[in-house]
């Protein structure tokens, strides 16, 4: 569903916040006012944006946060990372000529190295040169943080259309993160069981953290086979709306994106 509130006024654009989830298949847009109320929600095919989406993206938003998928993601313990060695890491990237991005995850004491898809990032940087870009893995790990116990195994599963991010914590320690192309329930089982085998996990982990858009019931039932508890990650501060909106729209985990910018 797409939604535009009656309270959305063009002359207040400078006071609004635009949140974008950019992907290779679908893009998702939120516009929030200063009080955190949803004024606009849109989802559309990335290569065929609607006329309404094109009009919205042509507006001069001053506060823009963009979540984009990353490529060639590598995690390095902070005590081993040396900024002067950054060029040496380039040799391990699939596209050594592309820019390498870095992100320090303080609560994990790790440094993440990654790249953006050149065309995808260029598109959004052209539209919003001052936008704050936040890689999807950072949002996922920060949102998982409150649910990681000091004892037990936690698998995180974040669904993004045809790709899925899977990560693992064991006894509070970060162990694994990767992105897979998952098109069926059997694909999900295959990659989950691979993680179980590689880290010698038992039949069920303590907890599975789940987030995403348009989650299928069959997928959720499949995950119940691999975890004693399923926890659905939603926005820590769900957005408000003057009109009735689907709960998934007003509480989607993406709404926490601005809090990840610091």
Brief overview:
Helices cover 22% and strands 32% of the residues.
Could you describe the 3D structure shown?
With about 260 residues, this protein is α/β, with parallel strands linked by helices. About 20% of the residues lie in helices and about 30% in strands. It has seven helices and 14 strands. The strands form three sheets. A six-stranded mixed β-sheet has the order 1-4-3-2-5-9. Strands 12-11-10-13-14 form a five-stranded mixed β-sheet, sandwiched between helices. A hairpin with a 2-residue loop joins strand 10 and strand 11. The radius of gyration is 19 Å and the shape is globular. The mean pLDDT is about 90.
Brief descriptors of the model:
single chain; 262 residues; alpha/beta; 6-stranded mixed beta sheet; 5-stranded mixed beta sheet; 22% helix; globular
């Amino acid at each position: 569903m797409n939604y535009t509130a009656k309270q959305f006024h063009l002359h207040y654009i400078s006071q609004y916040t635009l949140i974008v989830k950019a992907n290779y298949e679908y893009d998702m847009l939120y516009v929030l006012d200063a009080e955190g109320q949803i004024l606009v929600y849109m989802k559309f095919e990335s290569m065929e944006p609607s006329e309404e989406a094109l009009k919205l993206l042509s507006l001069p938003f001053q506060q823009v946060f963009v979540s984009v998928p990353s490529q060639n993601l590598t995690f390095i313990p902070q005590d081993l990372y040396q900024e002067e060695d950054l060029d040496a890491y380039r040799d391990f990237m699939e596209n050594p000529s592309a820019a390498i991005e870095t992100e320090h995850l303080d609560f994990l004491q790790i440094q993440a190295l990654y790249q953006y898809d050149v065309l995808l990032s260029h598109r959004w940087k052209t539209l919003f040169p001052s936008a704050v870009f936040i890689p999807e893995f950072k949002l996922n790990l920060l949102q998982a943080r409150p649910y990681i116990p000091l004892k037990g195994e936690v698998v995180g599963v974040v669904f993004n259309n045809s790709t899925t991010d899977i990560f693992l914590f064991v006894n509070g320690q970060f162990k694994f993160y990767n992105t897979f192309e998952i098109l069926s329930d059997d694909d999900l089982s295959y990659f989950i069981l691979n993680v179980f085998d590689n880290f010698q996990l038992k039949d069920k982990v303590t907890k599975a953290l789940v987030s995403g858009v348009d989650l299928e019931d069959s997928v959720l039932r499949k995950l119940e086979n691999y975890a004693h508890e399923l926890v659905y990650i939603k926005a820590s501060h769900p957005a408000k709306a003057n009109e009735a909106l689907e709960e998934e729209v007003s509480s989607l985990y993406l709404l926490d994106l601005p809090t990840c910018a610091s």
